[in-house]
Design a protein that fits this description.
The complex is a heterodimer. Chain A has a single domain, classed as MYOD Basic-Helix-Loop-Helix Domain, subunit B (Irregular). Helix content of chain A is about 70%, strand content about 0%. Chain A contains four helices and no strands. In chain A, helix 2 packs parallel to helix 3 (about 45-75). Chain A is elongated and about 55 Å long. Chain B is an all-alpha fold. Chain B has six helices and no strands. In chain B, helix 1 (about 10-40) runs parallel beside helix 6, helix 2 (about 45-65) packs across helix 3 (about 70-90) and helix 3 (about 70-90) crosses helix 4 (about 95-115). Chain B is elongated and about 95 Å long. Classes of the chains: A mainly alpha, B mainly alpha. The interface between A and B is large, with 52 and 65 residues. Chain B: One of its GO terms (molecular function) is protein dimerization activity. Chain B: This is BHLH domain-containing protein. Chain B: Keywords: Nucleus, Transcription, Transcription regulation. Chain B: Its main location: nucleus.
């Protein structure tokens, strides 16, 4: 008993419970477009982690593609002050 | 009469109960904080703040970069977008702090490399992720495999505990989604602006006279 107490104090008072992990996994599931409509007791934690990795990779790829597109767009517009003003006004709508 | 007996067992139980309550309170506070962060990443205001910071940073990058080819320009834009995203997180998450410190470390390393003599790559220098078994690939259980891959994808998460890793991943995903929405919207507006500039040039009009909303 005393050993468990000293261990939990060393780890900052956080004993990791299964419930805690399950709760975080289901929260993660809610963020994933592929899995958020499925019941959390039907989706395994490994599946959630797999979908998480896939989704993050997809988002990275989208960001890379958008960077390509932005680099093309920034080359062609010559960044005059008038255009910057347009952009600013469009962004603050 | 209230007993003033300092019963050792009672004190031990009481302090354990206090610790338990404090831990539960900290967990609730953490959960609320995570929920608030997720709401923040999804808000229009946050996206607009990010978009304008991004545009500002991109303009600065264009002025200072001597990049000649498309891929390095695109890489510079992606890195800028990541850096501004990390700044938007206001130091609340490990992934955002890791992005910013990695940038600094890389710059210091490149600076050192430029000044130092080249070193031969030796087995002792390579930091290997392989298990001690070496050549033979051990088939880890699915959860461990996926966790390992996730740690590679979420910046700064290699040494985090599993609960912290899951929290970081959830926040990182919400932030990435906002980044993609913002970059797409900036690209749309740049496309519109360049079309507008093009057609007004053709028509011989000056943009200053375009009526503003």
């Amino acid at each position: 008993m005393s050993s468990r107490r000293s261990r939990s104090r060393q780890s900052g008072g956080s004993r990791i419970t299964d419930d805690q992990i399950n709760d975080l996994v289901s929260k993660l599931q809610q963020v994933l477009p592929e899995l958020r409509n499925r019941r959390s007791d039907k989706v395994s934690a490994a599946r959630v982690l797999q979908e998480t990795c896939n989704y993050i990779r997809n988002l990275h790829k989208e960001a890379d593609d958008l960077s390509d597109r932005l680099s093309e767009l920034l080359e062609t517009t010559d960044g005059t002050s008038a255009q910057a003003e347009i952009i600013r006004s469009l962004l603050t709508q | 009469m209230a007993s003033m007996s300092f019963n050792f067992e009672e004190n031990v139980d009481r302090s354990r109960e206090l610790k338990r309550r404090k831990r539960r309170k900290i967990e609730t506070v953490n959960q609320d904080r995570a929920k608030n962060n997720q709401i923040r990443w999804r808000s229009i205001a946050e996206q607009q703040t990010y978009s304008s910071k991004l545009v500002e940073a991109l303009r600065h990058v264009r002025q200072t970069s001597a990049a000649s080819n498309v891929s390095s320009r695109s890489r510079a834009i992606r890195e800028t977008a990541d850096k501004v995203l990390a700044i938007s997180a206001r130091g609340r998450t490990k992934w955002s702090r890791a992005i910013l410190t990695n940038r600094l470390k890389l710059r210091l390393k490149n600076h050192k490399k430029a000044n130092a003599k080249p070193r031969m790559a030796s087995p002792g220098n390579r930091r290997s992720n392989n298990p001690p078994n070496g050549v033979q690939k051990k088939r880890l259980p699915a959860l461990e495999r996926r966790t390992r891959v996730l740690r590679r994808l979420v910046p700064g998460s290699r040494k985090l505990s599993l609960p912290n890793l899951l929290e970081e991943a959830t926040d990182y995903i919400s932030a990435l989604e906002m980044q993609v929405r913002a970059m797409a919207s900036v690209a749309e507006h740049l496309t519109g602006a360049s079309n507008l500039a093009e057609s007004s040039n053709r028509l011989g009009m000056s943009l200053e006279h375009t009526p503003q909303r």
